[in-house]
């Protein structure tokens, strides 16, 4: 009775039922893309409202480029979430989305000032 204890039984993880979570996440990405589009349109309107200056046109072009970059990341994520077993968001894609959002906020601050 002093023998070694029996090895633990392997733990079986149940299959994950994602339910509606991928759909909610996909809709959240779409809402965020819509908000980014509205912010870009307002930035373009603001930059061209007081006349065309080099700084205003530069910020306008930068906002449009950031919008396109964010749209690309969001579209890839929306397509990935449409699969049966969606993969997790890659860190580089998450970083790109965050950088686009922060850069857009910096551009908005530059337009207001």
UniProtKB/TrEMBL annotation:
Keywords: Membrane, Transmembrane, Transmembrane helix. The keyword Transmembrane applies. The keyword DNA damage does not apply. Pfam families: DUF202. The chain crosses the membrane at residues 54-73, 94-112. InterPro entries: DUF202. Residues 17-81 form the DUF202 domain. This is DUF202 domain-containing protein. It comes from Streptomyces adustus.
């Amino acid at each position: 009775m002093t023998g070694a204890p029996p090895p633990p039984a392997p733990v079986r993880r149940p299959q994950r039922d994602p339910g509606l979570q991928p759909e909610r996440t996909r809709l959240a990405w779409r809402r965020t893309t819509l908000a980014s589009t509205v912010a870009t349109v307002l930035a373009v309107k603001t930059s061209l409202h007081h006349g065309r200056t080099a700084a205003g046109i530069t910020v306008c072009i930068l906002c449009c480029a950031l919008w396109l970059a964010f749209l690309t990341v969001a579209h890839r994520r929306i397509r990935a979430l449409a699969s049966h077993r969606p993969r997790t968001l890659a860190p580089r894609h998450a970083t790109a989305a965050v950088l686009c959002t922060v850069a857009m906020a910096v551009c908005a601050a530059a337009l207001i000032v």
